Amino acid sequence: MVESAEYDEAAPRIREYLERFERAVAQVRLTHGDRPVDEVRLALAEAFASECLVVWSEVTDDAARRIAEAGSGESFG
Questions:
Q1: Inside any domain, residue 64
Q2: How far apart are CA 37 and CA 64, in angstroms?
Q3: d(CA 67, CA 50)
Q4: What is the rounded CA–CA span in Å between residue 69 and residue 53?
Q5: Domain count for the chain
């Protein structure tokens, strides 16, 4: 079980990671929303790298699919 002090210590790093992740996804959504999923996936990989993020391929694939679908009129999320 995680102690409260451990959570309090980790929370700022997690928050920073999520902010960088959200920034990368938002950037790609703006520039690649109408692109094929393979192009979106590549753009996400580049955006994650520029934010110094390591993201599981399954997460990148899902985000790319959702961004590509949103570009064709579907909602993201």
A1: yes
A2: 6
A3: 19
A4: 24
A5: 1
- Enclosing domain of residue 12: 4-71
Distance CA 53, CA 4 (A): 26
pLDDT one-digit tens code per residue, 26-46: 999 999 998 999 999 999 999
Structure confidence at residue 39 (pLDDT): 97
Between CA 24 and CA 48 the distance in angstroms is 6
pLDDT bracket for residue 1 (50, 70, 90): low
Q: Is residue 77 part of a domain?
A: no
Q: pLDDT digits over 49-61, tens only?
A: 999 999 999 999 9
With contact defined as beta carbons under 8 Å apart, do 43 and 32 qualify? yes
User: In the numeric block, which tokens belong to residue 69?
Assistant: 């679908």
Tokens of 58: 């399954």
